[in-house]
Sigma-54-dependent Fis family transcriptional regulator (Marnyiella aurantia), 394 residues
Amino acid sequence: MQKILIVEDETAISSVLQSILSDELPTHEFIIAADGLEGFKYIEKEDFDLIISDIKMPKVSGTELLKQALQVKPESTFVMISGHADIDTAVDCLKEGAYDFISKPIDINRLITSVKNALNKEKLAKENKTLQKENSTLKKKVSKKYQMIGESPALKKIHDMIAKVASSDARVLITGPNGAGKELVAHAIHSQSERSRGPMVEVNCAAIPSELIESELFGHVKGSFTGAIKDKQGKFELAHNGTIFLDEIGDMSLIAQAKVLRALQESKVSPVGSDKEIKVDVRVLAATNKNMQKEIEAGRFREDLYHRLSVIEIYVPPLDDRKEDIKLLVDYFAKALADEQGTAPKFFEEGALKSLESFSWTGNIRELRNIVERLIILGGNTVTAEDVAAFVRK
Protein backbone atom coordinates (compact mmCIF):
# COMPACT_ATOMS: atom_id res chain seq x y z
CA MET A 1 0.00 0.00 0.00
CA GLN A 2 1.25 3.50 -0.85
CA LYS A 3 1.98 5.75 2.12
CA ILE A 4 1.57 9.49 2.64
CA LEU A 5 3.08 11.30 5.64
CA ILE A 6 1.37 14.47 6.90
CA VAL A 7 3.61 16.61 9.13
CA GLU A 8 1.49 19.30 10.84
CA ASP A 9 1.55 20.65 14.40
CA GLU A 10 -2.10 21.79 14.30
CA THR A 11 -4.24 18.70 14.92
CA ALA A 12 -7.35 20.23 13.35
CA ILE A 13 -5.54 20.87 10.05
CA SER A 14 -3.89 17.45 9.90
CA SER A 15 -7.24 15.75 10.58
CA VAL A 16 -8.95 17.72 7.81
CA LEU A 17 -6.14 16.95 5.37
CA GLN A 18 -6.32 13.23 6.16
CA SER A 19 -10.12 13.18 5.84
CA ILE A 20 -10.17 14.97 2.46
CA LEU A 21 -7.30 13.03 0.91
CA SER A 22 -8.57 9.67 2.21
CA ASP A 23 -11.76 10.17 0.19
CA GLU A 24 -9.73 10.98 -2.95
CA LEU A 25 -7.07 8.33 -2.39
CA PRO A 26 -8.78 5.40 -0.63
CA THR A 27 -5.95 2.95 -1.40
CA HIS A 28 -3.35 5.05 0.42
CA GLU A 29 -2.28 4.80 4.04
CA PHE A 30 -1.92 8.09 5.93
CA ILE A 31 0.44 8.68 8.85
CA ILE A 32 0.36 11.84 10.98
CA ALA A 33 3.42 13.43 12.60
CA ALA A 34 2.88 16.22 15.14
CA ASP A 35 6.09 18.13 14.31
CA GLY A 36 9.20 18.09 12.14
CA LEU A 37 11.25 16.01 14.57
CA GLU A 38 8.64 13.24 14.70
CA GLY A 39 8.25 13.49 10.91
CA PHE A 40 11.99 12.96 10.38
CA LYS A 41 11.94 9.86 12.60
CA TYR A 42 9.19 8.39 10.42
CA ILE A 43 11.11 9.23 7.23
CA GLU A 44 14.25 7.52 8.55
CA LYS A 45 12.30 4.32 9.28
CA GLU A 46 9.91 4.15 6.30
CA ASP A 47 9.58 5.07 2.64
CA PHE A 48 6.75 7.44 1.73
CA ASP A 49 5.31 8.13 -1.71
CA LEU A 50 4.56 11.69 -0.61
CA ILE A 51 5.29 13.94 2.38
CA ILE A 52 2.99 16.90 3.08
CA SER A 53 4.62 19.27 5.55
CA ASP A 54 3.79 22.57 7.17
CA ILE A 55 6.63 25.08 7.18
CA LYS A 56 6.29 26.68 10.61
CA MET A 57 6.47 24.01 13.31
CA PRO A 58 8.15 23.62 16.73
CA LYS A 59 11.36 21.62 17.28
CA VAL A 60 12.17 21.17 13.56
CA SER A 61 10.68 23.45 10.90
CA GLY A 62 9.35 22.20 7.58
CA THR A 63 12.31 23.80 5.83
CA GLU A 64 14.81 21.91 7.99
CA LEU A 65 12.80 18.71 7.63
CA LEU A 66 12.96 19.04 3.84
CA LYS A 67 16.74 19.50 3.86
CA GLN A 68 17.39 16.66 6.31
CA ALA A 69 15.01 14.25 4.55
CA LEU A 70 16.52 14.88 1.11
CA GLN A 71 19.96 14.15 2.54
CA VAL A 72 18.98 10.68 3.76
CA LYS A 73 16.38 9.95 1.04
CA PRO A 74 17.05 12.18 -2.00
CA GLU A 75 14.06 10.81 -3.95
CA SER A 76 11.49 11.98 -1.35
CA THR A 77 8.62 14.07 -2.77
CA PHE A 78 7.47 17.02 -0.67
CA VAL A 79 4.42 19.30 -0.87
CA MET A 80 4.85 22.21 1.56
CA ILE A 81 2.04 24.12 3.35
CA SER A 82 2.72 27.78 3.98
CA GLY A 83 1.00 30.80 5.48
CA HIS A 84 0.97 34.06 3.50
CA ALA A 85 3.92 35.34 5.49
CA ASP A 86 5.94 32.25 4.51
CA ILE A 87 5.69 32.59 0.70
CA ASP A 88 9.35 33.55 0.29
CA THR A 89 10.32 30.59 2.45
CA ALA A 90 8.08 28.32 0.39
CA VAL A 91 9.80 29.47 -2.81
CA ASP A 92 13.14 28.68 -1.17
CA CYS A 93 11.78 25.20 -0.43
CA LEU A 94 11.10 24.70 -4.13
CA LYS A 95 14.70 25.61 -4.84
CA GLU A 96 15.79 23.06 -2.22
CA GLY A 97 13.82 20.30 -3.96
CA ALA A 98 10.17 20.46 -2.86
CA TYR A 99 7.64 19.56 -5.55
CA ASP A 100 5.05 22.25 -4.71
CA PHE A 101 3.63 24.45 -1.95
CA ILE A 102 0.05 25.21 -0.93
CA SER A 103 -0.87 28.53 0.70
CA LYS A 104 -3.12 28.84 3.74
CA PRO A 105 -6.07 29.00 3.88
CA ILE A 106 -5.90 25.80 1.88
CA ASP A 107 -7.77 25.62 -1.42
CA ILE A 108 -9.08 22.03 -1.40
CA ASN A 109 -9.14 21.63 -5.18
CA ARG A 110 -5.64 23.04 -5.45
CA LEU A 111 -4.47 20.63 -2.75
CA ILE A 112 -6.00 17.57 -4.40
CA THR A 113 -4.56 18.48 -7.80
CA SER A 114 -1.09 19.07 -6.38
CA VAL A 115 -1.10 15.83 -4.39
CA LYS A 116 -2.24 13.72 -7.36
CA ASN A 117 0.33 15.32 -9.66
CA ALA A 118 3.06 14.74 -7.09
CA LEU A 119 2.08 11.07 -6.73
CA ASN A 120 2.07 10.64 -10.52
CA LYS A 121 5.51 12.23 -10.66
CA GLU A 122 6.73 9.82 -7.99
CA LYS A 123 5.21 6.85 -9.83
CA LEU A 124 6.82 7.87 -13.13
CA ALA A 125 10.17 8.37 -11.40
CA LYS A 126 10.03 4.84 -9.96
CA GLU A 127 9.02 3.34 -13.31
CA ASN A 128 11.80 5.25 -15.04
CA LYS A 129 14.33 4.03 -12.50
CA THR A 130 13.20 0.45 -13.03
CA LEU A 131 13.49 0.83 -16.81
CA GLN A 132 16.95 2.36 -16.45
CA LYS A 133 18.06 -0.63 -14.38
CA GLU A 134 16.64 -3.04 -16.95
CA ASN A 135 18.28 -1.15 -19.80
CA SER A 136 21.56 -0.93 -17.90
CA THR A 137 21.52 -4.69 -17.32
CA LEU A 138 20.70 -5.34 -20.95
CA LYS A 139 23.41 -2.96 -22.17
CA LYS A 140 25.98 -4.74 -20.04
CA LYS A 141 24.96 -8.09 -21.51
CA VAL A 142 25.15 -6.76 -25.05
CA SER A 143 28.26 -4.59 -24.70
CA LYS A 144 30.39 -7.36 -23.22
CA LYS A 145 30.27 -9.25 -26.51
CA TYR A 146 30.22 -6.23 -28.80
CA GLN A 147 32.41 -3.85 -26.83
CA MET A 148 34.38 -1.25 -28.80
CA ILE A 149 37.91 -1.05 -27.41
CA GLY A 150 40.07 2.04 -27.66
CA GLU A 151 40.54 5.64 -26.63
CA SER A 152 41.62 7.21 -29.92
CA PRO A 153 39.98 10.46 -31.09
CA ALA A 154 38.45 8.53 -34.02
CA LEU A 155 36.73 6.05 -31.70
CA LYS A 156 35.60 8.79 -29.29
CA LYS A 157 33.96 10.55 -32.25
CA ILE A 158 32.04 7.35 -33.05
CA HIS A 159 30.92 6.99 -29.42
CA ASP A 160 29.67 10.58 -29.48
CA MET A 161 27.69 9.91 -32.66
CA ILE A 162 26.17 6.74 -31.20
CA ALA A 163 25.10 8.63 -28.06
CA LYS A 164 23.37 11.25 -30.20
CA VAL A 165 21.52 8.94 -32.60
CA ALA A 166 20.70 5.93 -30.39
CA SER A 167 17.66 7.48 -28.72
CA SER A 168 16.03 8.36 -32.04
CA ASP A 169 14.55 6.03 -34.65
CA ALA A 170 16.67 7.55 -37.43
CA ARG A 171 18.09 5.10 -39.96
CA VAL A 172 21.87 4.85 -39.84
CA LEU A 173 24.27 3.80 -42.58
CA ILE A 174 27.58 2.55 -41.18
CA THR A 175 30.48 2.68 -43.64
CA GLY A 176 34.09 1.59 -43.47
CA PRO A 177 36.44 -1.21 -44.54
CA ASN A 178 36.01 -4.91 -43.75
CA GLY A 179 37.02 -5.90 -40.24
CA ALA A 180 36.92 -2.35 -38.83
CA GLY A 181 34.00 -2.99 -36.47
CA LYS A 182 30.84 -1.83 -38.26
CA GLU A 183 28.83 -4.59 -36.60
CA LEU A 184 29.91 -3.35 -33.17
CA VAL A 185 28.60 0.12 -33.96
CA ALA A 186 25.22 -1.34 -34.97
CA HIS A 187 24.95 -3.33 -31.74
CA ALA A 188 25.95 -0.29 -29.67
CA ILE A 189 23.21 1.80 -31.30
CA HIS A 190 20.60 -0.89 -30.65
CA SER A 191 21.68 -1.57 -27.06
CA GLN A 192 21.54 2.14 -26.17
CA SER A 193 18.18 2.73 -27.88
CA GLU A 194 14.64 2.47 -26.56
CA ARG A 195 14.29 -0.66 -28.72
CA SER A 196 16.97 -2.49 -26.72
CA ARG A 197 14.38 -4.77 -25.11
CA GLY A 198 13.20 -5.80 -28.58
CA PRO A 199 15.04 -8.10 -30.97
CA MET A 200 18.05 -7.20 -33.07
CA VAL A 201 18.00 -9.25 -36.27
CA GLU A 202 21.11 -9.37 -38.46
CA VAL A 203 21.12 -10.08 -42.19
CA ASN A 204 24.36 -10.54 -44.13
CA CYS A 205 23.19 -9.46 -47.57
CA ALA A 206 26.41 -10.67 -49.22
CA ALA A 207 26.03 -14.22 -47.88
CA ILE A 208 22.50 -14.84 -49.21
CA PRO A 209 21.98 -15.80 -52.88
CA SER A 210 20.10 -13.10 -54.81
CA GLU A 211 17.22 -15.47 -55.57
CA LEU A 212 16.68 -16.10 -51.85
CA ILE A 213 17.17 -12.60 -50.41
CA GLU A 214 13.50 -11.63 -50.76
CA SER A 215 12.38 -14.74 -48.92
CA GLU A 216 14.98 -14.13 -46.23
CA LEU A 217 13.91 -10.52 -45.68
CA PHE A 218 10.15 -10.73 -46.16
CA GLY A 219 9.31 -14.42 -45.66
CA HIS A 220 7.35 -16.73 -47.93
CA VAL A 221 4.24 -18.89 -47.98
CA LYS A 222 4.17 -22.60 -48.48
CA GLY A 223 4.41 -23.59 -52.16
CA SER A 224 5.50 -20.15 -53.38
CA PHE A 225 8.62 -21.68 -54.96
CA THR A 226 10.45 -25.00 -55.13
CA GLY A 227 11.61 -25.91 -51.64
CA ALA A 228 9.06 -23.72 -49.84
CA ILE A 229 7.58 -26.61 -47.86
CA LYS A 230 6.09 -24.40 -45.14
CA ASP A 231 5.39 -20.76 -44.33
CA LYS A 232 8.39 -18.79 -43.12
CA GLN A 233 8.62 -15.45 -41.36
CA GLY A 234 11.02 -12.93 -42.84
CA LYS A 235 13.69 -10.99 -40.98
CA PHE A 236 11.66 -7.76 -41.07
CA GLU A 237 8.76 -9.45 -39.32
CA LEU A 238 11.06 -11.12 -36.80
CA ALA A 239 12.56 -7.71 -35.99
CA HIS A 240 9.16 -6.14 -35.20
CA ASN A 241 9.50 -3.61 -32.33
CA GLY A 242 13.27 -3.95 -32.56
CA THR A 243 16.12 -3.37 -35.00
CA ILE A 244 17.14 -4.99 -38.27
CA PHE A 245 20.79 -4.75 -39.28
CA LEU A 246 21.38 -5.09 -43.02
CA ASP A 247 25.09 -5.83 -43.26
CA GLU A 248 26.84 -5.47 -46.65
CA ILE A 249 23.79 -3.67 -48.06
CA GLY A 250 25.86 -2.72 -51.12
CA ASP A 251 25.73 -6.35 -52.31
CA MET A 252 21.93 -6.51 -52.40
CA SER A 253 20.28 -7.06 -55.80
CA LEU A 254 18.33 -4.23 -57.43
CA ILE A 255 15.10 -6.26 -57.20
CA ALA A 256 15.54 -6.74 -53.46
CA GLN A 257 16.48 -3.07 -53.10
CA ALA A 258 13.11 -2.08 -54.58
CA LYS A 259 11.31 -4.29 -52.05
CA VAL A 260 13.32 -2.88 -49.14
CA LEU A 261 12.55 0.66 -50.32
CA ARG A 262 8.82 -0.12 -50.30
CA ALA A 263 9.09 -1.65 -46.82
CA LEU A 264 10.77 1.51 -45.54
CA GLN A 265 8.23 3.80 -47.19
CA GLU A 266 5.12 1.95 -46.04
CA SER A 267 6.31 0.04 -42.94
CA LYS A 268 4.72 -3.05 -44.49
CA VAL A 269 6.10 -6.25 -46.01
CA SER A 270 4.56 -8.91 -48.22
CA PRO A 271 5.85 -12.51 -48.02
CA VAL A 272 6.88 -14.11 -51.31
CA GLY A 273 3.84 -15.72 -52.92
CA SER A 274 1.32 -13.81 -50.81
CA ASP A 275 -0.86 -10.75 -51.32
CA LYS A 276 -1.03 -10.25 -47.56
CA GLU A 277 0.63 -7.17 -46.12
CA ILE A 278 2.18 -7.34 -42.68
CA LYS A 279 2.67 -4.17 -40.65
CA VAL A 280 6.14 -3.91 -39.14
CA ASP A 281 7.67 -1.42 -36.71
CA VAL A 282 11.40 -1.75 -37.29
CA ARG A 283 14.43 0.48 -37.03
CA VAL A 284 16.82 -0.13 -39.92
CA LEU A 285 20.59 -0.01 -39.56
CA ALA A 286 22.73 -0.82 -42.60
CA ALA A 287 26.44 -1.23 -43.26
CA THR A 288 28.68 -1.42 -46.30
CA ASN A 289 32.38 -1.42 -47.18
CA LYS A 290 31.65 0.03 -50.64
CA ASN A 291 31.75 3.56 -51.97
CA MET A 292 28.03 4.08 -52.34
CA GLN A 293 28.32 7.10 -54.63
CA LYS A 294 30.30 4.99 -57.11
CA GLU A 295 27.76 2.16 -56.77
CA ILE A 296 24.95 4.62 -57.55
CA GLU A 297 26.81 6.06 -60.54
CA ALA A 298 27.42 2.54 -61.85
CA GLY A 299 23.69 1.73 -61.57
CA ARG A 300 24.23 -1.01 -58.99
CA PHE A 301 22.48 0.76 -56.13
CA ARG A 302 19.30 2.82 -56.00
CA GLU A 303 19.90 6.43 -55.08
CA ASP A 304 16.46 6.76 -53.47
CA LEU A 305 17.19 3.77 -51.20
CA TYR A 306 20.58 5.20 -50.30
CA HIS A 307 18.98 8.43 -49.13
CA ARG A 308 16.40 6.46 -47.14
CA LEU A 309 19.11 4.46 -45.38
CA SER A 310 21.64 7.25 -44.76
CA VAL A 311 19.67 9.70 -42.65
CA ILE A 312 22.74 9.47 -40.38
CA GLU A 313 26.05 8.16 -41.66
CA ILE A 314 28.78 6.88 -39.35
CA TYR A 315 32.21 6.15 -40.77
CA VAL A 316 34.32 3.52 -39.01
CA PRO A 317 38.00 4.17 -39.87
CA PRO A 318 40.55 1.44 -40.59
CA LEU A 319 42.86 0.32 -37.79
CA ASP A 320 45.74 2.10 -39.54
CA ASP A 321 43.99 5.39 -38.67
CA ARG A 322 43.75 4.55 -34.95
CA LYS A 323 46.96 2.68 -34.17
CA GLU A 324 47.04 4.20 -30.70
CA ASP A 325 44.28 1.70 -29.85
CA ILE A 326 46.39 -1.37 -30.72
CA LYS A 327 47.81 -1.84 -27.20
CA LEU A 328 44.36 -1.77 -25.63
CA LEU A 329 43.01 -4.13 -28.29
CA VAL A 330 45.89 -6.59 -27.78
CA ASP A 331 45.32 -6.59 -24.01
CA TYR A 332 41.59 -7.12 -24.53
CA PHE A 333 42.04 -9.98 -27.01
CA ALA A 334 44.72 -11.65 -24.86
CA LYS A 335 42.37 -11.65 -21.85
CA ALA A 336 39.35 -12.75 -23.90
CA LEU A 337 41.26 -15.65 -25.46
CA ALA A 338 42.62 -16.68 -22.07
CA ASP A 339 39.08 -16.71 -20.66
CA GLU A 340 37.93 -18.88 -23.56
CA GLN A 341 40.77 -21.35 -23.00
CA GLY A 342 40.70 -21.23 -19.20
CA THR A 343 44.32 -20.07 -18.95
CA ALA A 344 46.16 -17.01 -17.62
CA PRO A 345 46.49 -14.20 -20.19
CA LYS A 346 49.91 -13.84 -21.80
CA PHE A 347 51.86 -10.62 -21.44
CA PHE A 348 52.97 -8.75 -24.57
CA GLU A 349 56.29 -6.96 -24.17
CA GLU A 350 56.59 -3.33 -25.24
CA GLY A 351 58.79 -4.37 -28.16
CA ALA A 352 56.09 -6.76 -29.41
CA LEU A 353 53.48 -4.01 -29.20
CA LYS A 354 55.73 -1.55 -31.06
CA SER A 355 56.22 -4.14 -33.81
CA LEU A 356 52.47 -4.65 -34.15
CA GLU A 357 51.93 -0.89 -34.26
CA SER A 358 54.41 -0.59 -37.13
CA PHE A 359 52.44 -2.91 -39.43
CA SER A 360 49.80 -1.96 -41.99
CA TRP A 361 46.53 -3.64 -41.00
CA THR A 362 44.62 -4.28 -44.21
CA GLY A 363 42.38 -6.74 -42.40
CA ASN A 364 41.85 -4.27 -39.57
CA ILE A 365 40.72 -5.37 -36.09
CA ARG A 366 39.64 -8.81 -37.28
CA GLU A 367 43.17 -9.44 -38.61
CA LEU A 368 44.73 -8.15 -35.38
CA ARG A 369 42.67 -10.55 -33.30
CA ASN A 370 43.74 -13.51 -35.43
CA ILE A 371 47.40 -12.54 -35.10
CA VAL A 372 47.11 -12.08 -31.32
CA GLU A 373 45.64 -15.59 -31.12
CA ARG A 374 48.49 -16.96 -33.28
CA LEU A 375 51.13 -15.30 -31.09
CA ILE A 376 49.52 -16.63 -27.90
CA ILE A 377 49.57 -20.17 -29.31
CA LEU A 378 53.03 -20.12 -30.90
CA GLY A 379 54.91 -17.60 -28.75
CA GLY A 380 56.55 -18.05 -25.38
CA ASN A 381 55.11 -17.37 -21.95
CA THR A 382 55.72 -13.72 -22.68
CA VAL A 383 55.21 -12.55 -26.28
CA THR A 384 58.30 -10.73 -27.52
CA ALA A 385 59.30 -8.73 -30.60
CA GLU A 386 61.19 -11.84 -31.73
CA ASP A 387 57.94 -13.84 -31.60
CA VAL A 388 56.24 -11.21 -33.74
CA ALA A 389 59.09 -11.34 -36.26
CA ALA A 390 58.98 -15.14 -36.35
CA PHE A 391 55.25 -15.74 -36.59
CA VAL A 392 53.83 -12.67 -38.31
CA ARG A 393 54.46 -12.12 -42.01
CA LYS A 394 53.87 -8.53 -43.06
